[in-house]
Amino acid sequence: MSAASAEGAGRVPLRVIANEWTRIGVTGFGGPPAHIALLRKLAVDRKGWLDAREFQDANAACGLLPGPASTQLALFCAYRVAGPAGVIVGGLGFIAPAVILILALSLVFLAHTPPLWIRGAGAGAGAAVAAVAMHAAHGLLAPSFARVRSDRARVVRWGAYLVVGIGAAALLGPYLVLALLGCGLLEVVIERRGLPGGPLVFVIPGAVSVGGIGALCWTAFKVGALSFGGGFVIIPLMHGDAVHTSHWMTNAQFLNAVALGQITPGPVVATVAAVGYAAHGLAGGVIAAAVAFAPSFSFILLGGPRFEQIRTNTAAKAFLSGAGPAAIGAIAGAAVVLAEALREAWQFGILTAALLALLVLKRGVVQTLLSAGAVGVIAALAGAPLPH
Questions:
Q1: pLDDT score for 229
Q2: How far, rounded to the nearest angstrom, does the alpha carbon of residue 243 sit from its chain's CA centroid?
Q3: Which are the contacts of 308, defined by CB distance < 8 A and separation ≥ 6?
Q4: Is 287 helix (H, G, I), strand (E, B) or coil?
Q5: Burial code of 216-238, b = ≥16 C-beta within 10 A, e = fewer?
């Protein structure tokens, strides 16, 4: 931490924190990369509250923590310039706009009898969600592989973790988190003991409970505290619980919820509010969002003063080396699950077009989803069958 930035900590008025972090929460379309760019522009380039190295170190430390990294970076930046009170004020400003907007849209898209054009928009955008998942996994592959490419043994383990993640997302449903944790812990053991990578074996316990507020809180907690490797890994963590275990949503509604989380600004984890709404109404949406974001607030309030140690912690790095590629695999596996959830032939046409737009033409996620939604509206008004 530089002397200049240390002097700046705690001096920024909370009113400024509220205004600036809410502005990022309202305008932060594009997911974590957009949030990080906006935070850097604010805290480093415009205001000079943090120097460039401190910002990079904080970003690296947040990447080693479970949960939404860009949200944790936003909280840490607020902590650095305004202390614990800044974490609360800045965090609410950054998170609340996305949660409020998703809950408002859920009232329309997840209603029992939405208008025809709304159903068409949801079916169209939902059809493109699997392509968005594949795009997210594709974008994470290269930087993840670059960290291990110089070590043949680590490359082999990286590939194994990736395959485990794909299989876990497709087959384990709500128990996916155990595969992520298992990969991370196995890598910690291998790194500490110098063991060769061997077969990966996970013991999956039986189900504990379904439905109810407790089940919703567990789903939200997994999203906020046990997700690794990028915002889209929350999708496979939520899908099994929301659709198959607790039956809060149909596959079509879940696809709608994911699409809402992608086209709204702010943190992607706010998608869990739509799942909470489907489970237990507006109160459920608020509870789910609060539980999902609580770990991030805790990590920063308790660990903010020790971020340098977190960034250089070898166990944390080793854990992410295992859990990270497994999470990327889980995102790719989720794309398969989400594609299988499509029911109408015309939706597969949209999925194919979305894959082309994202992976070949390099179009943006928001633009692709909005275009898919518009095609869905046209299809619905033209009399195309809609999923239930």
A1: 60
A2: 18
A3: 1, 57, 61
A4: helix
A5: bbbbbbbbbbbbbbbbbbbbbbb
pLDDT of residue 202: 40
* Tokens (6 digits) for 316: 């944390």
Q: Give Cβ neighbours of residue 184 (< 8 Å, ≥ 6 apart).
A: 228, 318, 319, 320, 321, 322, 323, 326
- pLDDT tens-digit profile of 44-77? 999 999 999 889 888 888 888 888 889 999 999 9
Please give the structure tokens belonging to residue 343.
């029911």
Distance CA 127, CA 372 (A): 8
Cβ atoms 330, 169 nearer than 8 A: yes
- Provide the 10 A C-beta neighbour count for residue 25: 28
pTM equals: 0.83
Show Cβ contacts of residue 374 under 8 Å, excluding neighbours closer than 6 positions: 121, 124
Query: Looking at residue 206, what DSSP letter applies?
Result: P
Q: How far apart are CA 229 and CA 66, in angstroms?
A: 8
The band of 232, judged by pLDDT with boundaries at 50, 70 and 90, is confident
- CA 270, 271, 276, 278 dihedral sign is positive
Q: What is the spatial distance between Cα 110 and Cα 248, in angstroms, rounded to a whole number?
A: 11
Residue written as token pair 């080693």: 64
Nearest to 132 by CA among 250, 38, 276, 234: 234
Residue 250 is classified by DSSP as -
- What span, in angstroms and rounded, lies between the C-alpha atoms of 310 and 295? 16
pLDDT, position 314 = 85
Distance of CA 88 to the CA centre of its chain: 21
Q: DSSP for 7-39?
A: HHTT-S-HHHHHHHHHHHHHH-TTSHHHHHHHH
Residue of 99, 187, 100, 196 lying closest to 153 (CA atoms): 196
